[in-house]
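Quick illustration for those who missed Monday's session on complexes.
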Amino acid sequence: MKRIAILGSTGSIGTQTLDIVREHPDRYEAYALTAHNNVELLIRQAREFRPEIVAIANEDHHAQLREALADLPVKVFAGAEALCDVVRMSEVDVVLTAMVGFSGLRPTIAAIEAGKDIALANKETLVVAGELITRLAVERKVSVLPVDSEHSAIFQCLVGEDGNDIDKILLTASGGPFRRHSLDELDRVTAAHALQHPNWEMGAKITIDSATMMNKGFEMIEAKWLFGIEPERIEVVVHPESIVHSAVQFADGSVKAQLGVPDMRLPIQYALSFPRRDTLGGERLDLFALRNLTFERPDFDKFDCLRIAYEAAETGGNMPCIVNAANEVANLAFRQGRIAFRDIARLIRRAMTEADFCARPDLDTYLHTDAETRRITAACI
Ligand code: NDP
Ligand code: MG
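Prediction with magnesium ion bound:
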């Protein structure tokens, strides 16, 4: 029995993780559930899964949560710091990080320092502080297993390949809803358009990141840290059908890929069950029903965010942290209708020149850089 702390249990990844727990009650226990604002759903989840602990990051909801669960033997925590307390609990075996954005950084560090294995969905943590996180994970001998579908695919391709050299990683991308748009058309798109992702149903922030392709840029940085591969050897391949979830080309030219219907429950479950494969219901891949699998090069001019990510990875230091913070602020402003689609990349570029650069950041640098960049980007808006 694995006891899981699910950070962000009310989100897209969090609720699908609970689907897995529901399917395998003999293998997984939802030991702790955390949310930010969605107190109603958190209450329903607590009633169904009977966790030991629930935590709400926004303290304004503390009283409501405590009262609603008064009849259950559940501990109720509140506040951002509570997430760090939850992950340190000695009963927790694995922490599934499914909150969104920079907020994942401190609880992920707390979990690793406490020796907990990480099932990592919160890619922003690796984008911001990949060097720190991977170093800590090695020191504390914890595994960081990917939940992101592309990284799960790469990870699955690497099983049994210990010591074999990799030529390159082929990181597939759906291309998002604006793959065929001209620059003029991109200037007119709204958040409502961008929120209609062709293949995946995800939280709002990552859906916008997919439309700008910042998500793919972040995934390139995520792959660099998870697999120790330099960005020049990570090639983005636009594959609109989202059937090939990514591939690895080895030194002998052999290419291994992982395929499947788009369903996040598979990578979530594999991150929890590895090295075992548990049964999982749902649609199966039918190769005969697929008419075509197509592949094309990404358009770096149209999707400047993708180029920004490669530049930030090459610059290193706190530059990816600057890019992440500016992107979080710009992404939200676009969703609120306050800026245009292509302003997202413009604002990030501006932050890259205005925020203080640091070549050797530590945790304090990241916290400072994040706050400073948010101020700069908000002021530009
Ligand atoms: P959602 O927006 O659907 O869910 C986010 C979750 O995090 C919610 O439970 C939310 O709580 C909680 N949360 C938000 N802000 C905070 C905060 N400041 N402190 C604590 N908790 C917070 O996001 P997704 O599930 O789509 O994505 C989660 C992470 O997984 C992201 O990093 C994303 O990039 C990554 N990911 C997602 C994929 C997907 O298919 N959705 C695929 C691959 C990666 P509340 O609901 O109460 O506000
Ligand atoms: Mg992904």
